[in-house]
């Protein structure tokens, strides 16, 4: 059995479906803030739970853990810094300690795949620098933003626990910004929201200079990476971090590419505009994904074009309702605010 925390989320909902299709038995633990996206399945167990107070019974019969739960972007982390720390650091450590104790007690290795982020490489800089520093897993990092800082602290906690428990097998996946269709859709990710705005407004607005770099990753490649690491040789992955990306894009370049894909595929003209009156900040990082290709033979090959087309088609079908841009369920920060307000008033 595989335990997937956050298995009802953006990546988790697609990963869980794929694991079931491969014949795995899956236990999902999720707060279910966004609902349960799955039909009943004989090999799927759904548990509504909060990883800040983990139940040791969640690990019964579990052979591997994919830990996806937690706050997942800068706006939510900045809005709820205490929850961000509890969900991304404390909960990760609590579950890891239970996993390490289980592995030691049973004398069997237990893999713990941790969803980290390429944003741990971000440090304040000017995005217009001529020399791009290519970030690799071996580089020293000291992120300053709330979200990326907690992800880095969680990585350190996992490695500290691994030092004391030889059968605990943590693996860190530093994913680029994910894009593409999911059963639990998000429109607060750059490719997804560009496609939504192009569909709705026939116009894309890039705030600031648009020269910042972003590493991107198709959601299906993210899913494939987790499955690949479930089966990779233990001696090659224990305690290792792997960058998982398809390609690095400048934000302005990405906007023009999305517009071009839509025009070529549908004959719809989409204009791209830079709004320099709004400073989007200088969060910029250019990341290498060579390590996982070199050491494990994994390559994230899916590009943005197929995702843009799939999202556009889903919008045309009405899969997300008539006005998805107004539905808070597709935007993590908006839904988090509504959820916390509802809990506070209950």
Molecular structure report:
The chain is α/β, with parallel strands linked by helices. The chain has one domain (2-345): Rossmann fold (3-Layer(aba) Sandwich), CATH 3.40.50.720. Helix content is 41%, strand content 19%. It has a seven-stranded parallel sheet with strand order 3-2-1-4-5-7-11, sandwiched between helices. It has a three-stranded mixed sheet with strand order 8-10-12. α1 (10-21) links the parallel β1 (2-5) and β2. α1 packs across α6 and α8 (251-266) crosses α10 (304-317). It is globular and about 60 Å long. It starts with a strand and ends with a helix.
Give the arrangement of secondary structure elements.
Layout: E1 2-5, H1 10-21, E2 26-30, E3 44-48, E4 64-67, H2 74-79, H3 81-106, E5 110-117, E6 134-135, H4 146-164, E7 168-175, E8 177-179, H5 190-201, E9 203-207, E10 213-218, H6 219-231, H7 234-237, E11 240-244, E12 247-250, H8 251-266, E13 271-275, E14 286-287, H9 290-296, H10 304-317, H11 332-345
Parallel strand pairs: 1-2, 1-4, 2-3, 4-5, 5-7, 6-14, 7-11, 8-10, 9-13
Antiparallel strand pairs: 10-12
Helix pairs in contact: 1-6, 3-4, 5-8, 5-10, 8-10
Strand order of the largest sheet: 3-2-1-4-5-7-11
Radius of gyration: 20 Å
> What order do the SSEs take from the amino end to the carboxyl end, as H and E?
EHEEEHHEEHEEHEEHHEEHEEHHH
Strand content: 15-25%
Shape category: globular
- Could you give me the name of the CATH homologous superfamily? NAD(P)-binding Rossmann-like Domain
Major sheet, described briefly? 7 strands, parallel
Distance between the termini: 36 Å
Indicate the CATH class.
Alpha Beta
CATH fold descriptor = Rossmann fold
CATH-level-2 architecture: 3-Layer(aba) Sandwich
Q: Helicity range of the residues?
A: 40-55%
Tell me the number of helical segments per DSSP (H or I, 4 or more residues long).
Answer: 11
Q: What is the count of structural domains?
A: 1
Low-confidence residue ranges: 126-131
Mean pLDDT: 93
Tally the beta strands.
Answer: 14
């Amino acid at each position: 059995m595989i335990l997937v925390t956050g298995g009802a989320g953006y990546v988790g909902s697609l990963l869980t479906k794929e694991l079931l299709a491969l014949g795995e038995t899956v236990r999902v633990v999720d707060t279910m803030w966004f609902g349960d996206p799955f039909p009943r399945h004989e090999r799927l167990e759904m548990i509504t739970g909060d990883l800040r107070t983990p139940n040791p019974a969640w690990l019964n019969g579990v052979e591997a853990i994919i830990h996806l739960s937690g706050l997942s972007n800068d706006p939510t982390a900045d809005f709820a810094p205490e929850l961000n720390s509890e969900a991304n650091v404390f909960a990760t450590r609590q579950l890891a300690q239970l996993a390490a104790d289980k592995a030691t007690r049973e004398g069997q290795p237990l893999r713990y795949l941790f969803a980290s982020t390429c944003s741990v490489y971000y440090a304040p800089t000017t995005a217009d620098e001529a020399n791009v520093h290519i970030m690799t897993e071996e580089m020293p990092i000291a992120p300053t933003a709330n979200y990326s800082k907690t992800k880095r602290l969680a990585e350190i906690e996992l490695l500290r626990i691994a030092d004391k428990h030889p059968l605990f097998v943590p693996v860190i996946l530093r994913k680029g910004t994910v894009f593409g269709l999911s059963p639990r859709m998000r429109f607060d990710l750059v490719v997804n929201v560009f496609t939504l705005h192009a569909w709705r407004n026939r116009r894309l607005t890039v705030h600031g200079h648009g020269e910042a770099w972003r590493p991107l990753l198709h959601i299906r490649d993210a899913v494939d990476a987790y499955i690949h690491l479930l089966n990779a040789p233990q001696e090659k992955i224990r305690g290792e971090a792997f960058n998982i990306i398809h390609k690095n894009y400048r934000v302005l370049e990405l906007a023009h590419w999305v517009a071009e894909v839509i025009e070529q595929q549908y004959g719809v003209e989409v204009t791209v505009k830079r709004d320099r009156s709004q400073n989007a900040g200088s969060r910029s990082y250019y990341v290498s994904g060579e390590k996982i290709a070199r050491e494990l033979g994994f390559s994230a090959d899916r590009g943005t074009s197929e995702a843009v087309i799939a999202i556009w088609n889903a919008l045309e079908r009405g899969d997300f309702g008539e006005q998805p841009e107004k539905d808070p369920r597709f935007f993590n920060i908006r839904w988090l605010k509504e959820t916390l307000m509802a809990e506070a008033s209950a």
